[in-house]
């Protein structure tokens, strides 16, 4: 699917505020509300936009401790096996296959160090995990809600 500059701008505006009305977006991209709706419908139908969601501040719900955990896996563990296992743990906010020594990188978020340790122990107990290496996040420097050009 071809995405033009207007589609890119619409995507960026929706990433910045998924609750923006089609009329508001239309004003910013010089289109009518129905034209914006047609474009958003097309972007959804083709899978460019996969959905709309609320972004929750982890501090507001008390999950302020984070770590990135490198997983080292046994034998021929598949990405699908890692993904299924990662979804079993509510503290996992992201899981990725990576290049380098580790087989996967898992992003954990927890209430405190004790909770993080508990989550890490459960993750280590997965049958295919042979070892882990963890890095605890001290502070967030840059965080972007999505992809696309700036909305300014």
Automatic annotation (TrEMBL):
Pfam families reported for this sequence: AsnC_trans_reg, HTH_AsnC-type
Recorded coiled-coil stretches: none
Record keywords, A-Z: DNA-binding, Transcription, Transcription regulation
The keyword Hydrolase is annotated on this UniProt entry: no
Origin: domain of life: Bacteria
Domain HTH asnC-type stretches: 3-64
Swiss-Prot/TrEMBL GO biological process terms: response to amino acid
GO cellular component: cytosol
MF terms in GO: sequence-specific DNA binding
Classification via PANTHER family: LEUCINE-RESPONSIVE REGULATORY PROTEIN, TRANSCRIPTIONAL REGULATORY PROTEIN (PROBABLY ASNC-FAMILY)-RELATED
Protein known as: Transcriptional regulator, AsnC family
Organism of provenance: Micromonospora halophytica
